[in-house]
Fold this sequence. Notes:
Layout: E1 17-21, E2 28-29, E3 32-33, H1 37-51, E4 55-59, H2 79-86, E5 91-93, H3 99-106, E6 113-116, H4 124-127, H5 130-137, E7 142-145, E8 167-169, H6 171-185, E9 191-195, H7 204-210, E10 216-219, H8 221-230, H9 245-257, E11 261-263, E12 267-271, E13 280-284, E14 293-297, H10 299-310, E15 314-318, H11 331-345, E16 350-354, H12 356-364, E17 373-375, H13 379-385, H14 391-394
Parallel strand pairs: 1-4, 1-7, 4-6, 5-6, 7-8, 9-10, 9-15, 10-11, 15-16, 16-17
Antiparallel strand pairs: 2-3, 12-13, 12-14
Helix pairs in contact: 1-2, 8-9, 10-11
Amino acid sequence: MTAFRTLDDIGDVSGKRVLVREDLNVPMDGDRVTDDTRLRAAAPTVAELADKGAKVLVLAHFGRPKGERNPEMSLAKVVKAFSEVLGREVRFIDDCQGADAANAVAAMAPGSIALLENTRFHKGEEKNDPALVEAMAALGDIYVNDAFSAAHRAHASTEGLAHKLPAYAGRSMQAELEALEKALGNPQHPVAAVVGGAKVSTKLDVLKHLVTKVDHLIIGGGMANTFLAARGIDVGKSLCEHDLTGTANEIMDAADKANCTVHLPYDVVVAKEFKANPPTRTVNVHEVEADEMILDVGPAAVEALADALKTCRTLVWNGPLGAFETPPFDTATVSLARTAAALTQDGSLVSVAGGGDTVAALNQAGAGDSFTFVSTAGGAFLEWMEGKELPGVAALVK
């Protein structure tokens, strides 16, 4: 495991100004935060530093203001909800750099917390502009990155600051990196990966990387149809990228060479129209009619997948097995997720899942809390599954 500096390495922070990069890009309805998951993820690091007497200066982006000040995307809206989650006062500072911000920071007492204005109000943030990095760094003595979900972007507040100030991983970032190391960095074999979702094209790099890393690759969602078509199966009206069947065959050949077993559904749930609770049939993949579409993995295949998971020690999961937002096509995802959750609770499986759709699907199955680790990161989780170096993480290496 690459060694990262964490809060355990930070030393005495009493009276020090600590810039903490968090992901507070929460969903809002008007001025109300509708899901405070990210605020709760940020709380342990912020509270720990405040308890140790630091002046905690929270940096975050919010929306896509494209380098302009936009009151609709001000982090001032998040202050009340964040202070409720923390159970302590959070003040707001109207910029993340400059003399006014510096004066506001100077007036803070040790142990207090401030949320600084949206880093993306500055054009230099997404460009990782050295002048903005300097100006932000002038507000702090120490930098803590606690935003794994923004770690795949080399921005001023996620990567640039780590080269200007002593840099550490916060508790949420640390938990994420430790979980990912267990899942793919140095996992216990056999390892299974579930990769679902609509399109092969969005996950080509993931699939190519995983066949060299895992023992079982379980392919679900619309992308499974492309693999079935590559095997010469007629998938009817199903969502399918017919132009990628050659690529699908290359991935299966690479899996053969690497002794990775690829699991494709052999029975499927089909319907003639895609809507909630239409008439459905469960059929062998060779029996799909020309006017039918595959919308979920069938029960016999799910049972076989559950048996495969029982032989594994590690599971990485990204994407649903069927069109899970539309009942009854969440059945396979829910069933396999519950199997994985039970195996995790028994202590026989380390299970790590990530990506927006995945989190929603696992929560729908009531299984998310029983996984070893569920990452709320989307793009960063996918890039990590592709085997790419994440700039915000690389900058924290000892």
